[in-house]
Amino acid sequence: MNAPTGTPEPHEPPHEPPPGLRGVVVTTTGLGDVRGEEGFFHYRQYSAVDLARTRTVEDVWFLLHRGHLPSAAELTAFRAEVAPLRVLPPVLADVLPALAAAGGPPLAGLRTALSLLGAAEGARPVLDLTPQQRAADALRVCALVPTVLAALHRTRVGLAPVAPREDLDAAANWLWMLTGAQAPPAHVRALRRYLVATVDHGFNASTFTARVVASTGADVVAAVVAALGAFSGPLHGGAPDRALAALEEIGHPDRAAAWVHGQLAAGRRVMGFGHAVYRTADPRSVLLRETALELGGELGERAVAVEERVVAALAEAKPGRALHANVEYYAGVVMATCGVPPELFTPTFATSRVVGWCAHVLEQAGDPRIVRPSARYTGPPAPAPVP
């Protein structure tokens, strides 16, 4: 066929796409939603913050993957089903020293470990599986991610991995596998709140990535590995340690305003403040501020005082824009108080968000259409003669 010639018919120019696809609805979901103008988000029909105050990760895991909150008997059976899946398989235990010696952030090691797991256990495309088989693959990945991350960390610092315990829930098990000691109840309760509050959060970059990969019919492991790649970015899952670093750099609350103005003048982001969706207080930040104060200690009190001054300085520098503390600001405070080192802030986040990713993968796998958006071309006019 000959290339088109002549002048195209005039037509009304298309609308500019919103930056970052803000507000563009790409599909439907029954898993939850974020209502940014209200400062509210939910998992299925329940307030996510209410769930974080009253339920465990396993409860919400069951809710997102199986459609309803479990009864006491269902929860007991679910924990028994998950427990053997948490155990590190020999194929991964054998490569942990090499992965740890390679260096790099823990999520990079996790991506490699999951790819090996998928190959070793024969992960099959979701297109070729029954819903029950897809759910079994998702359960395996969600159960194993915390164990792999904790084992990688301990191996890197010269300690032997600690096996998960069947009598501990996800939050208590995470602290147990990191330290080899049973954490105080206050630390388990605080971390449990954080993990439940971060299981899912609308169509964020990593969740959307997981769904795009799942729409191709690829296997569950491939979708999670792709999501981890998006999640590792400092503007997404990689933010909590940077927010805590900013808090430490500020030091005394009296220095907060000058620090903010210095960051803005240099064209740098004020990490831990502002959100792509919320136009009011981030409900996760409100929950974790309360949690940090309940934990007690100088860090939480200083974080609250610094937050007040940073918000005031941002309001002065950017009038008309509501910039509040986001989840990353207090996430770092809570995790540090519970004894989680900064290099494990993002991996801790990943241990809960993998549950949300897999729920979205399972939902997307039920749609036979591949995700294939369009882009508006803005380059030189075509066709042009080839020189």
UniProtKB/TrEMBL annotation:
Residues 1-24 are annotated as: Disordered. Pfam families: Citrate_synt. Keywords: Transferase. PROSITE patterns: CITRATE_SYNTHASE. The keyword Transferase applies. Pathway: Carbohydrate metabolism; tricarboxylic acid cycle. SUPFAM superfamilies: Citrate synthase (SSF48256). The keyword Disulfide bond does not apply. Belongs to the citrate synthase family. This is Citrate synthase.
